[in-house]
Amino acid sequence: MTDGDGLVRAYLLDGAGGGRPLDWPGVRRWTLEEGFLWVHLDRAVEAARQWLAVESGLSQLACEALLAEDTRPRSAEFENGLIVILRGVNLNPGADPEDMVSIRLWIDRHRVISVRLRQLMAVSDLCAGLDAGKGPQGPADFLVDLAARLVERMGPVIDDFEDDADDVENAVLASVGYALRGRLGELRRRVIALRRYIAPQRDVMARLVTERVPWLDDLHRMRLRETADRITRYVEDLDAVRDRAAVTQDELSSRLGEQMNRNMYVLAIVAGVFLPLGLLTGLLGINVGGIPGTDTPWAFAAVAVGLGVLGAIELWVLKRFGWI
Fold this sequence. Notes:
Elements: E1 7-13, E2 19-21, H1 24-29, E3 36-42, H2 46-54, H3 60-67, E4 74-78, E5 81-88, E6 101-107, E7 111-116, H4 121-131, H5 139-174, H6 179-210, H7 218-284, H8 299-320
Helix pairs in contact: 4-5, 5-6, 5-7, 6-7, 7-8
């Protein structure tokens, strides 16, 4: 099945973990007596938008919520169903994981209508489960399984962030370089971008636990609570990575400042030593009459030795006062 006509996937669930794929005619012929229906649409295709507005039977407000351009994770009870908006990490080739992919759901007792713009790996996992006879059996299973798969995909991404934070910390301890500031800034940006959507998703899970819909029983609420707990842990992990990056950046700035001060100190010592020497050589180098030693063969050697002695005296004085 292709999504050129707006229908990405559609299944008629058999209630035992399996499902039969449907095309548009099959979706349009579906009745309540046949079983639970899942329709997955591409909101960028006009045919899908038209079906939602005209043939889905959803209210205009529900359709607008499913087709909104930019949304944050949330859940809301509409009439006899739920609007649930979730996000998953972007694992598409060439994409940044923190550029999270949105999926919008209408869920009631008899069907699920899901809408997406970009491919989501968690949805592909659900389809594979249905094809293997190990997928959701109804609306509650669908919601719980999808939420769990979205969170499961977040784990490796957050682990990578923690590994990056470890690498940068070790690099700062081993050496100091301005390139590390760019790595730290990029890490903090990515963590903040990911947390922006994961934190509201935690609130969505917590709210779903309290939603009083007849098809959501205590077992499913417990599984949603476990998913919410996992998201809470991931949010705490992201906060820890963000704080570690901030502390590492402060340490790096401090080390760079110390390095700069040390370099400026060395330059100041060199300038202080050569300032009197430069003054003397400048005076002896002016092109006017009366410069002593112009007719003496050993005058240059005497001046050079004198400058060397003067430099040694300056170094002794600086060391005596504890400046070097």
